[in-house]
Amino acid sequence: MDSLKVSVVIPCFNERETIEQIARAVRASPIQDLEIIIVDDGSTDGTVEVLREKVTGLSDQIIYR
Q: In the list 15, 31, 37, 41, which could disulfide-bond 19, CB 3.0-4.6 Å?
């Protein structure tokens, strides 16, 4: 049987203090074929900077709105 990819979509808005921890926790899950997509919904608290500086390598895709 072919393995299936699991996509985890993490929406965020003003989550500067928690988004890196959330992304690390999801990445550390035991799921073999995992894709992490983070969607920032116009954060104004510095979340975008955290995503660009610290979370880019933890996720497969980041969408900025």
A: 15
Q: Is 52 in contact with 24 (CB distance < 8 Å)? A: no
Per residue in 17-49, pLDDT (tens digit) is 999 999 999 999 999 899 999 999 999 999 999
Could you tell me if 36 and 3 are in contact, meaning their C-beta atoms sit under 8 angstroms apart?
no
Distance CA 20, CA 46 (A): 12
Q: Record the pTM.
A: 0.91
Q: Residue 40's closest CA among 12, 8, 10?
A: 12
Question: What's the CA gap between 4 and 26, in Å, rounded?
Answer: 17
